[in-house]
Amino acid sequence: MIYKNTNAIIGKNYPVVIVGSGPAGISLALKLEEKKIKTLILEAGSDDYSEKSQEFYKSKIFGDEITDLRSSRLRQFGGTSGLWGGWSKPMENYNLSEWGIQHHELDNYSDQTSKILDINNTFKKSNINKYFNQIEFQYSKVRFNEKFRDHISKSNYIDLLMNAQVLKFSGEESVTKKVEFLFHGQRFKISSAFFVLASGGIENSRILLYTKQQNNLLKNNSSIGMYWMTHPWFLGGYGVLKKKKLSEYLGINFIDRDGPLHIASSEILKKEKKIMSGSIYMDAKENKNIVKEIVKDLLCVAPNFGKKVTRSIFKKDLKCGNIFMHLEEAPNKNNRITLDDKIKDGNGIPISNLYYKKSIDTLISAKTILKEFANICRNLDIGRVALQKSIDDLNNYDSLGVYHHIGGTRIGVDLKNSVVDYNLKVHNNKNLYVSGSSVFPTSGYTNPTFTIVQLSLRLGDHISKIL
Ligand SMILES: Cc1cc2nc3c(=O)[nH]c(=O)nc-3n(C[C@H](O)[C@H](O)[C@H](O)COP(=O)(O)OP(=O)(O)OC[C@H]3O[C@@H](n4cnc5c(N)ncnc54)[C@H](O)[C@@H]3O)c2cc1C
After folding, report:
1. What pLDDT does 286 receive?
2. In terms of pTM, does the model score above 0.85?
3. Superfamily in which the 2-65+74-92+142-230+333-356+405-466 domain is placed by CATH
4. 197 lines ligand 1 (CB under 6 A)
């Protein structure tokens, strides 16, 4: 049921209370519903987008500029899925292995994740050489509020209350007893056996930090908010990639799809060169002027290849233009979320401060990946790649936007650098859990939501086993 007031909720017995109705929160509720376990989702926003609601996401940024946190997430039913691009794919196994999670533990949920996201559960990977693979994304169009509104309205197991901003948790020693929320200016507390924070990659840390500030519940959890990361996304260079030649080279393994060609670094490249992992994509539609410029340059420096390229353009089998990069970011303790000690949101809760500095590792990794990719393009004669000067000089990259909010409540075993264990349970706490990209200990290069949904489904199974 979807409720717009608290009457039917207060006093009811919910074994699990979930904070947030984005992909993380709704996927968890669906899994628990499958197990016939009742959940209450507390959602701060309402049915629709409102600037007033977004204002509660106001934050201060220190260090390097990032996208305003009021515009890089949505505080409404369905969360940021109302805004996302839908690019979906599981995390690379070699990235996951750094988390201490076996990939089959998440693979078990790929099918259900794909159904939730209305995509095919096929993510091909074709080996180009030891350093690179052609990879496949699926593109989801799912907005969680649109897809699941009706289902939740009719559900006997999922209750959802909108306009309920969770403030903090309270309890005794290591047991969380209550969650406190504000509903139209009034404070309420709800008891439960399990609490799951699924309020996004900044708010998960913010709510835990506020809980820690207000009571003793999380007093030994010193890493909340630390090691915040994103996926640096920028223009790495320009190039031409001959689709037909690549397809001849890869044969039946060539991934023939409309849209951009996606190439990702391999585990060997990451390990041998000691760099971050990354992916690049090239799209013929991006910038036709660049294509003309490149052909002009190529005709000067490599006349034979340039002529071939020109012929191919007229045959329209080239992928030309900008080379975009999406990279893993190195975890850095100093990139962190804290609470502001003066400024508060409209409900009197301290806003978050985000300290963020780009890493030189990103530039080194981008340069290495592009140079190695340029080498195979030349050696296999499948294309040509030119690096952006600022990347070749290891000088800077211009971010195209910071939309993925990762880390802050990382998985691990040590209180010094992690907040939750492998089951996503907060350290030193018996019944408080976190789901979302805030638990990723490292970011990989892959867009996060597919993994977020897998983790939530796995968490649902874990909680249902205990219950
Ligand atoms: C422009 C853009 C493009 C993107 N494209 C992609 C993409 O192509 N592929 C991909 O994988 N990812 C993409 N993402 C990221 C993706 O949107 C997120 O990974 C995903 O939405 C995270 O899900 P979540 O449930 O953890 O958090 P959210 O979706 O942010 O949901 C959190 C929910 O918690 C609620 N909430 C917050 N605070 C409180 C509180 N105090 N009390 C109660 N409720 C609260 C919010 O209102 C919201 O409903 C993109 C993001 C943006 C901004």
Report:
1. 45
2. yes
3. FAD/NAD(P)-binding domain (3.50.50.60)
4. no
